[in-house]
Design a protein that fits this description.
There is one protein chain. Strands 1, 2, 4, 5, 7, 8, 10, 12, 17, 20 and 23 form an 11-stranded mixed β-sheet that branches. Helices cover about 5% and strands about 35% of the residues. The chain is mainly β and about 220 residues long. The chain contains 2 helices and 25 strands. Strand 1 and strand 2 form a beta hairpin.
């Protein structure tokens, strides 16, 4: 289904986890596989680039880790990434090259592609964030429905996909910009280069190169790349 596949959303050259996506169609299909993938990949990482810190945690020697950050494995932090003051990584996380995990941000079961920024008070759970995706201060991924039923990705009123997952946050394509204090509801998929207005409540699929202003107002970007 176009617009929401791995190929539609991501440049796999921009993640150390490219192999994880090799045999799936939709990005949320990798969520149950992140834990085991990190354990397998960690054993193969070059020791001249990465060092093992504690159990199942591999940190690039060029990464910057604040002493107040809490890191739990399995976890891989790639080169030149930065994990700032009081960040909380609960585990099952891959942080890409040059990515920023900021003050009081919490990660759980996620893949952050290279240059992702989640720099201020963000919660990112059961999600995949593409190359140079950015979440504004206070924006979060909500990963569990209030009725605890499995998450459905709704492409339109009449087209939806059953994920079979009780926990799924958001799939953000490359270069997505999410405004401050927005909530990305379970099963949200945001296409490449889309923008979300601050304080939005988003669910369903946001088309690539669009501007999400509200559920009833989604505009096409008209300025050049």
């Amino acid at each position: 289904m176009s617009g929401i596949t791995v190929v539609d959303l991501y440049d796999l050259k921009e993640t150390i986890a490219a192999e994880l996506f090799g045999d799936v169609t939709y990005p949320w299909e990798v969520l149950p596989k992140i834990h085991d993938f990190i354990l397998e990949l960690g054993k193969r990482l070059p020791e001249d680039v990465f060092e093992k810190r504690g159990e199942d945690i591999w940190i690039a020697k060029s990464a910057k880790i604040a002493p107040t950050a809490c890191l739990n494995g399995p976890l891989i932090v790639d080169e030149e990434a930065e994990i700032r003051h009081c960040a909380f990584v609960r585990g099952n996380a891959i942080v890409g090259k040059g990515a920023v995990v900021g003050n009081s941000t919490e990660l759980k079961n996620v893949v952050l592609f290279n240059k992702v920024q989640v720099p201020h008070y963000n919660y990112v759970g059961d999600s995949v964030l593409g190359f140079k995706a950015h979440m504004g201060a206070g924006s979060i991924t909500s990963n569990v429905k209030s009725d605890k039923t499995p998450v459905v990705v709704r492409k339109s009123e009449n087209i939806h996909i059953e994920t079979g997952l009780k926990k799924m946050g958001a799939m953000l394509g490359d270069h997505v910009e999410v405004g401050c204090n927005s909530v990305l509801n379970p099963g949200t998929v945001i296409g490449r280069e889309a923008n979300v207005y601050p304080c939005s409540s988003v669910r369903g699929v946001v088309p690539a190169r669009s501007i999400y202003k509200s559920k009833t107002e989604i505009a096409e970007k008209r300025w050049p790349k």
